[in-house]
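Collaborator request, handled under Task 6.
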Amino acid sequence: MPELIKEFKKTFIESFLNLIPILLIVAGFQIFVFQSVPDGLDSIIFGFFIVTIGVTFFLMGLEIGVFPLGNSLSSEFLEKKSLFWFALFGFALGFSASVAEPAIIAVASQAETITNGALNAWTLRLIIATSVGAITAFGIIRTIYGWSISKIIIIGYVIVLLITYFTPREIVGLAYDSGGVATNVATVPLIVALGIGVASAIKERSVVRDGFGFVALAAITPMISIQLYGIFALDDGFSSQIQYIANEVEDKAHYIGGFSIAKVLFDLFDTFTNILPIIATIVLFQYFVIKKPLPNIGRVVFGFVFLVLGLYGFIVGIKLGLFPIGESIAKNLVIMNNVFFIYLFAFLIGFGTTMAEPALVAVIKQADKMSEKQMNVKIIRLLVALGVGIGILTGSYKMVNGHDIWLFITILYMLVIVLAFFAPKEIVAFAFDLGGVTTSEITVPIVTAFGLYLAMNIEGRDPLMDGFGLIAFASVFPMITVLGYSILVKKFQKRQES
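Structure tokens returned to the collaborator:
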């Protein structure tokens, strides 16, 4: 217990330090740009404190329960020597983690509302979840056989770009954002743990080179499947059905109802139901396929309890602190009608939210722990945060000026493909995964709300065509920054050796 308390204190301090960039950005805009104090300042401060507590529980839950469980399950399935059951488990895990993912539900619901029901939220969720499940199963097979992850990912992005040309323009942004939200807070840790577990259990495999890449694949397939759905399932009259109906949007961005015991217990149960399909999948396969009790069941249960508490505190804190202040700043920026400050906020909020992203911190630490070579965790986080900031800035520029997302995305993904050919092979899969990890529980809600608010308040912009797409830009630029950095380091090392 003393060791656990010590670890909790250490994680809490780290989580608080991770949130400092957001605090500085928000305070800077309020003091120097708007020169005013935001409404409900006490609630906002309390929200930031709860976010810190939530992130602490979340990260400890991953370390105590989720990551060890992923390694254990991978070893058990490899010992069983049944590729069919292992792949089926991968599909079930990917599907169950995605179908109940809060970010996927939120984006799908927004799309249904904006299109006046022409896009069905449940259909979108099923398409995304099935895609993630199928690619998780494929990822397991790929790791076992040692197929090149970089080649597969590059082929995937080429397919994405080709079919984008034929996709109805109204859903291109939604399709790309679906890839981003598919790799979110419930999905990423489990998929990463599974990938690392498989690679570490096979002697011939490298953890960094072969264990990563699952998240990148899980981001690509929803882009493809949603675009194919748009091509073959939507009729020619789809565009005429789009109608943003403000009074039909359920308010999920603010915490309403106070902190009564009943309210807290209900919200905790609601958070538990988000990960219940994942728990059910693990239990069913563990006891009916592997036919063994869960190892270290006490730690696993303890880890998932921490995970639920962390997610609950995290979401409540975001609704109390991050959403209201982000909404207020976006509103003031539109009123000011100053594009410089819009772009500045876009970059800074992308950078700040990424530095605070718990899934990113967890994945980089796992990569550093399992890698044959020591990684510079701080530099990688800075590169990823810089990439997200540039991405949100670029997406905002596209939105303000009304440019076509297809041209921008095509150029950027072509650049990613070129960089992947020159980057060190052991870092490619990891770099691709970082693009998916960045679009997680802090980044997605703030960026999506920011994009939709701009699209609805800039004359001539369409909420569906222009409001979505920022997440796609936030995903692609970290790949560019990390791959570019790895190429420069490789060249520098070669010069030193010569």
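The cover message to the collaborator said: "The two ends are 52 Å apart (CA to CA). Residues 2-497 form one domain. Please let us know whether this matches your experimental observations."
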